[in-house]
Fold this protein.
Amino acid sequence: MESEQDFLECERGRVFCLLMMSGGLFGAFTYLLRGNVFCNAQTGNIVLMGMALGKGEFMHAAYFLIPITAYGLGAIVSEILPVSVKKAGILRWDTLLIGFEILITILLGFLPESAPYQISQVAINFICSMQYNTFRQAEGIPMATTFCTNHVRQFGIHIAKSIRKKDISYMKRSLQHGKMLLMFIIGAAAGTVMGRYFYGKSIWGASFLLFIVFIDLLHADLIKEKGMLERVPRGH
């Protein structure tokens, strides 16, 4: 059994909770205010592309290549850049990524409501892909921070295992996934309320959550874990 000291700050459950809340807010933001789409993951876009192809709407189908490509590029960048960041030995890639996300979300909040929805869609696709590929495990438990499907699956699986094997550890793991689902729902609810009053500037709610994560990770890089920058987070 691993102790708390075995995990880096970027692997802490509290960090993943805040990232899940921001993920829920991203989903509410893009669906309610930026074209009725979810940019946290790409399953929906791929289904819509297939549907458009089935209807013979080839130009409409081609449109979905834009968010899908942005998501793919995010994955590529998040695989290549960490190598250079690690060599610099100043901050972790995880920390720099959150800082970049803060910058992007702040800029998106300044866009006029008349701006093309695609700007926000592509930007959020890009950063969600990088975040999903970077933050992979919370205290030894594989997790995603931008969508919920696997959390629902794991919640059910571990409840079943706890009943079948009569092992409380499975129930505890199930509750961890349940907590992440709750955080996502809270973020989506908050994003919906803020969107009603602040429109595009409601994305700054995600900026605030990400800023808390950034300060936490920055403190770890510069003080708490200063001599541990070479250590690789689990799942990588």
